[in-house]
Amino acid sequence: MLWPGRTLYRGAKMLGTVCVLVLAAVQGLEAANPQLWRVDASPHHRALRSLQDEGHVDIWGGSGSHAQVMVEEEAKERVKRALLEAGLDHRVEVEDALALVESKMPLKRRKRATNFPMDWNTYHDYNDIEAFIGMMNLTSGGYLREEVATITGEGRPLRVVRVTDPTTTGPKKKIWIEGGIHAREWISPAVTTFLIHRLVTDPSWQSILRDTEWYLVPVANPDGYQFSFAGDARSRLWRKNRRVNGVNGRCKGVDLNRNWDLKWGVGASGNPCSETYKGPTAFSEKETHGLQNLMRQIGDIDLFITFHSFGQTVLYPWGWTVKPPANVKMLRRVARKYTDTVNQISNGSTDYQIGGSGPLYGLASGATDDWAYGELGVPLSYTIELPDDGHYGFLLPENRISSTVTETAAGVYCMASFIANTGSCASRRTRNPSWTFRRPSPRFWG
Fold first, then answer.
1. 3-state DSSP assignment of residue 353
2. For FRET with 319, which of 103, 111, 225, 268 sits at 20 to 30 Å CA-CA?
3. What single string gives the DSSP state of each residue in 376-387?
4. Does residue 215 register a pLDDT over 60?
């Protein structure tokens, strides 16, 4: 992601090209390009959090001793005064962030050699993903069914894809996969579409469909995601949806991952110009409202995963408190299934950290994983921050797509095998595996 205000404590290795990756004001401003500053304070320092809530900075990384923040030209004097009043030193690390973004953006789209609308060597816009889902629907032999959770503000369908073996009946483990809720995190929809392709076309994956039922959201933020393909640096770093907030069109969008109704408002901003704007009310957005309705209809989801980038972490609830959830040992156990598999498939080159969202990233509420766990009672609920760990960040090169989606799919398959007690990662102890966790009642706080 990295979620502003939820800073990952993995040191200061995120400079290099990643300095551009979280642009505070991808808000359509015409001011001079933003800078990246290094501030001698924790990312959770009160002064920085206040500046972020006001929409003046975007806190995107750091450690216990420093923070890296993106500052727009028009906010520089205000930020300087606030830091001086707080006794905090700073220095400019990158003078022109947008120029660096431009230099790292993918080349113009190449013509595909076939009529197949999707590959995993290129980043694809929402139109390609729509065409891909349509083709999979026509060729899946009944394994795939699509539903529309809602129509977005700009008129795009937010699709949810259900995949299971239609010839088998009886209880199945239900798995919900969410991708693309933050527009600029392009590797996330690449992973979700790859999972759909594997489930529909790979015989080894289809065997697990006898015991599992998958619901996949390829892009949870269609309007924002499509906007990020507009071709310029500011749109490439767009995070939120495209809601018109009624402030002269200056500050569009709601952070959909702050809009879910569980402890709504903690660690999120009420300022429409902030990257972490929570919206006017919980579930104010068509996207979150439509998805939660469908998730409630499905009921008894066993495994929930939302894919973000970047950071290489497997996060479990809670985000709004540092208190661990009731079944933290099982959450860690299943997360380890994922991380060990990815580490093995990557020959040790992709190493994930495991932990609670709040302790690792700082307190923030309104996220999908917390809502799924606390409101729906999903016993295994995760946010997976995809590669890398900060060198490229949101601008993960296209030559990294194939390895990332392959490794991630292997890890997810292992998690699914474990909960269904079938396949490569099954416990093999019993057809009623011991991992089963008593579902928390609604509004269960751990």
1. strand
2. 225
3. S--SEEEEEEES
4. yes
Mapping DSSP to helix (H, G, I), strand (E, B) and coil, where does residue 327 land?
A: coil
The model carries a pTM of 0.87
Phi-psi region of 50 (alpha: psi -120 to 50; beta: other; left: phi over 0): alpha
pLDDT tens profile 372-401: 999 999 999 999 999 987 778 788 999 999
Rounded to the nearest 5°, which phi and psi values hold at 92?
-85, 125
Which is it for strands 57-62 and 157-163: parallel, antiparallel or unpaired?
unpaired
> Could you give the CA distance from residue 18 to residue 355 in angstroms, rounded to a whole number?
23
As a whole number of angstroms, the distance between CA 441 and CA 446 comes to: 10
| 61: amino acid identity, one letter | G
Task: Give the C-alpha separation, 418 to 421, whole Å.
Answer: 5
- C-alpha to C-alpha distance for 172 and 442, rounded to whole angstroms: 22
Q: Which of 416, 389, 413, 411 is nearest to 400 (CA)?
A: 389
- Map tokens 């973000």 to a residue: 308
Work out whether strand 353-356 and strand 313-316 pair parallel, antiparallel, or are unpaired: parallel
Q: Annotated active-site positions, please?
A: 385
387: CB partners within 8 A, 6+ apart? 187, 309, 310, 312, 350, 396, 400, 404
